[in-house]
Write a structure and sequence with these properties.
The protein has 504 residues and is an alpha/beta fold. The protein has helices at 24-43, 60-72, 93-98, 121-126, 129-143, 157-177, 198-205, 214-223, 226-239, 251-270, 292-301, 311-323, 437-446, 461-471, 484-501; strands at residues 11-17, 50-53, 76-83, 103-107, 148-151, 180-184, 208-212, 241-242, 275-277, 304-306, 331-340, 347-351, 367-370, 382-385, 391-400, 405-415, 428-433, 452-456, 474-478. The chain is elongated.
Length: 504
Amino acid sequence: MAMENPFEGKEIWFGVGSQDLYGEEALRQVAQQTGEIVDFLNNTGKIPAKIVLKPTLKSSDGVKAFMTEASANPNVIGVITWCHTFSPAKMWIRGLEVLTKPLLQLATQHHKEIPWETIDMDFMNLNQAAHGDREFGYMVSRLGIPRKIVVGHYTDPEVAEKVGTWARACAGWNASQNMKVMRWGDNMRNVAVTEGDKTEAERVFGASINTWAVNELVAAYDKVKDDQVKALIEDYKTKYDVAPELLDSRYDELFIAAKEECAMVNMMRENGCTAGVDNFEDLGALPQLPGVGPQRFPSEYGWGFSAEGDWKTAVLVRIGAVMGYGLEGGASLMEDYSYNFTAGNELDMGSHMLEVSPSIGTIAKPKLAIYPLGIGGKSDPVRLVFSGKPGDAVVVSMADERERFRLLMDEVSIVEPQGSLKNLPCARAVWKPKPDLKTAVQCWIAAGGSHHTCMTTSVGREAWEDFARIAGVELAVIDENTTARQFEKELQLSEMYHRLNNRH
């Protein structure tokens, strides 16, 4: 099993702005030099989607046609613009007004250094990006269109890295716009943060969130062929340290767990879904609360998954999985469980009863084991047990703030557990929140952040910032420079901005 490549066949169109004022020779050079820039960026290997250079944009009609075509093409996930020469901004208005794809403004130039001894007016007329980009930027700002701005010579490694990160955010947005979320049952009773406006979520993020009766999953379970189950168990044996009893005295329970994964996967594929969520309070005739199957949704299929009816986190995990495709690490449901308040060694331990995915990276080979579970009222579930691999990560939540959605992020450093955790029969990760535990927790609570989060170890802050900008939703960030007093003020300002902006 492997996640489908979300960048396969996807393109980013590159539109270079100029005008007829400078003559055919200048325009020929514009096209030639822009082609060199596009080729260089494509060859860096840092941008996961192909950048495609389109004919030079010289008129209002040409810009509108370019933006209209890009918006209508399902393979185009974003548009890059650059003004090689002075490109009068009024010619961009009609085109920018019809653009529906994410926009990146590249502020670069073909030459790296000013040719001090040879520069003349011909060179100046051709190489005018320094003020051409400002003219264009004014119009984008005037129209209130969100975009990412990348500044630097195109050979600067940071430029390709930033374009690549934005391309990943574009893919995440594309995945969000085409996402179908399969909910087996409803939300856990009486829990607030897992609720939310599914209609508004589809309007804002594009994700279609619907419910299937658990009885339908039971029927799919009954239809699963033994050969499919046995093949899946062989996959388990290859990837995990399988507890001996699961291959002997408790093989029937392993078979049930694998059969449940097959049923869930079959239903997801039949309905074109890329994120799923269940609820331990609504299992119908299922023999076990699904464990290993949901844990493998992000790691093996690139799908989002969350628990207890929390479709919002399932959406985030899918977006995180897509943005991080091809990079080390991944995305998973996470939940804050317990703090270590030892002075100078403050830590947060996240886990969930069954659903944390090894996609985030593991210290050792995950153990596939079976343990009792005190909730759900079913037989002992089979699950993967591991500790998250040390490294940088972010945790992101989505809160339904009545009239809008708020994304909230904390930058964290995953560390090794400071003990064996030998009696904890579930997957977990231990981390140091930035700037410190007390500040991070205070700010998280002040922002109304959920106890359920999406942890990503593949992409970090910048990708999620790019995604939030594309989506037009608030993103509150807790990082090494955060203070509780300033964060509260920023929340107030952000709330006013998003209410006044009223994009959604």
